[in-house]
Write a structure and sequence with these properties.
The complex is a heterodimer. Chain A has strands spanning 5-7, 10-13, 19-24, 31-37, 44-50, 53-57, 64-68, 74-78, 87-94, 102-103, 107-111. By secondary structure, chain A is mainly β. Chain A is globular and about 40 Å long. Chain B is mainly beta. In chain B, 0% of the residues lie in helices and 58% in strands. Chain B has no helices and 11 strands. In chain B, the strands form 2 sheets. In chain B, strands 2, 4, 5, 9, 10 and 11 form a 6-stranded mixed sheet that branches. The chains are: A mainly beta, B mainly beta. The A-B interface holds A 31, 33, 35, 37, 41-45, 48, 50, 55-56, 58, 88, 90, 92, 94, 96-97, 99-106, 108 and B 4, 30-31, 33, 35, 40-45, 48, 50, 86, 88, 90, 93, 98-108.
Chain lengths: 112, 115
């Protein structure tokens, strides 16, 4: 039973570019949440997707957008990249209204 | 002030020592998670608590809902326990206490266990 799969594992982008990160949730999970973790900090909530809709959003600008597909997989898009967007991006899946989460290994994004 | 505070931020121990990491939170929660993160980033869920105490091997987690406090204990610590330990809470949200599942994380505790 596969857990949460994130791709790519590492990515280097130039300031101003756009990036798409992908997440496949654990089998049976229908809710996907995205988090940003800067170096030395705890993860910060970006947004959560359920039934292909953004259900809850953290304090991130509109440059951060997402999508959830009918198979529950999800994408995180970041436009007009800034140096400060360099971070580990984590995806976590869960079954709605349950308490358990499974985390992916993350995508390490470096903006130069 | 952060909604979730952990202490200490850094912890160094000798192999075999008993370790305690503390977590205090200020919001209403439906559950509290203890997570382990190794270099490279991947997060592993250790415990999910809504009351009382849980034990798994050498790890013990407790929570006091009234005091809004949780502790993670490691007995007979080992160098392979070296990692970042993170406390995260699932906040109560929405009508009737519906929890949409947003996790709020502490800043993490860096644990180093020396042989």
């Amino acid at each position: 039973d596969a857990g949460v799969t994130q791709s790519p594992t590492h990515l280097i982008k130039t300031r101003g570019q756009q990036v798409t990160l992908r997440c496949s949730p654990k089998s049976g999970h229908d809710t996907v949440s995205w988090y940003q973790q800067a170096l030395g900090q705890g993860p910060q909530f970006i947004f959560q997707y359920y039934e292909e809709e953004e259900r809850q959003r953290g304090n991130f600008p509109d440059r951060f957008s997402g999508h959830q597909f009918p198979n529950y997989s999800s994408e995180l898009n970041v436009n007009a990249l800034l140096l400060g967007d360099s971070a580990l991006y984590l995806c976590a899946s869960s079954l709605d209204y349950s308490y358990g989460y499974t985390f992916g290994s993350g995508t390490r994004l470096t903006v130069v | 002030k952060n909604e979730v505070e952990q202490s200490p931020q850094n912890l160094t121990a000798q192999e075999g020592e008993f370790i305690t990491i503390n977590c205090s939170y200020s919001v209403g929660i439906s559950a509290l998670h203890w997570l382990q993160q190794h270099p490279g980033g991947g997060i592993v869920s250790l415990f999910m608590l809504s009351s009382g105490k849980k034990k798994h091997g050498r790890l013990i987690a407790t929570i006091n809902i009234q005091e809004k406090h949780s502790s993670l204990h490691i007995t007979a610590s080992h160098p392979r326990d070296s990692a970042v330990y993170i406390c995260a809470v699932k906040e109560l949200k929405g009508a009737g206490g519906t929890s949409y599942g947003k996790l709020t994380f502490g800043q993490g505790t860096i644990l180093t266990v020396h042989p």
